[in-house]
Design brief:
The protein has about 230 residues and is α/β, with parallel strands linked by helices. The protein has 7 helices and 10 strands. It binds adenosine-5'-diphosphate (2 copies). One adenosine-5'-diphosphate binds next to helix 1. The site of one adenosine-5'-diphosphate has 7 residues, from helix 1. This is ABC transporter ATP-binding protein/permease.
């Protein structure tokens, strides 16, 4: 479950400027693909089409052989989890932030997801910048900790498809190492689309697509692309 197909996808935000110019790729269920390329290449646009924030201008996006235009936006979005680089937290407890997306989850399930993402120590606290009714100040979370809140949320939601956005801002290498285990755990056996700037950060993806100006310039495994130089 969660097989993604982009079939000759073309897209433009404005009539005159094509952004994606015939994108073809397939991600088998449970496998991962990394979309790598410079800023402006169209990487985020690919994830927005998958989410159905926009519809394609030509071609089709399919999930499990179903054109995403033939299912409701809600069901498309509920099938996809997103771990952005910069996680913005709501003005409520970390536990609330983890539960967001699956309000029916039990306290035990929330705790278990927090434990897997290694943030269980402070789930009853508010995030930084907020203050509780009794005056307790919010907890200052590092970028990596915020990202682990998003990871815990995704573990709890357990969607078949996961988007990891590593392109929006660079985490320092220490933080990257810190969250790698949690990321590996959440992407395991789940169809995963990684958005990244650099080839060096997506060594473990099953397939890498190099996007340039809305076209696929190269594709292959990390080893194959490294051998080409
Ligand atoms: P990337 O994620 O690779 O940096 P994007 O998919 O965000 O690239 O953007 C691809 C191109 O589409 C860029 O030229 C960008 O300026 C343009 N673009 C992105 N979003 C919009 C929008 N909402 N309206 C018009 N153009 C947009
Ligand atoms: P940008 O900062 O490049 O303009 P956006 O803020 O539109 O991009 O979105 C950043 C990423 O987060 C995109 O890849 C988009 O698919 C995803 N995204 C945006 N809004 C939501 C949302 N409400 N739920 C889940 N993912 C979202």
């Amino acid at each position: 479950e969660g097989r993604i197909v982009f079939d000759n996808v073309r897209f433009h935000y404005d009539q005159n400027r094509p952004i994606l110019k015939g994108i073809d790729f397939e991600v088998p269920a449970g496998k991962s693909v990394a979309i790598v390329g410079p800023s402006g290449a169209g990487k985020s646009t690919i994830s927005r089409l998958l989410f159905r924030f926009y519809d394609v201008s030509g071609g089709a996006v399919r999930i499990d052989d179903q054109d995403v235009r033939d299912v409701t936006q809600e069901s498309v979005r509920s099938a996809i989890g997103m771990v952005p680089q910069d996680t913005v937290l709501f003005n409520d407890t970390i536990a609330y932030n983890i539960r967001y997306g699956r309000p029916d989850a039990t306290d035990e399930e929330v705790k278990e997801a927090a434990r897997m993402a290694q943030i269980h120590d402070f789930i009853e606290r508010l995030p930084d910048g907020y203050q509780s009714e009794v005056g307790e100040r919010g907890l200052k979370l590092s970028g990596g900790e915020k990202q682990r809140v998003a990871i815990a949320r995704t573990i709890l939601k357990a969607p078949p498809i996961l988007i990891l956005d590593e392109a929006t801002s660079a985490l320092d290498t220490h933080t990257e190492r810190e969250i790698q285990t949690a990321l590996d755990q959440v992407s395991k056996n789940r169809t995963t689309l990684v958005i990244a700037h650099r080839l060096s950060t997506v060594v473990n993806a099953d397939q890498i697509i190099v996007l340039e100006a809305g076209e696929i310039a190269e594709r292959g495994t990390h080893a194959q692309l490294m051998a080409k130089g």
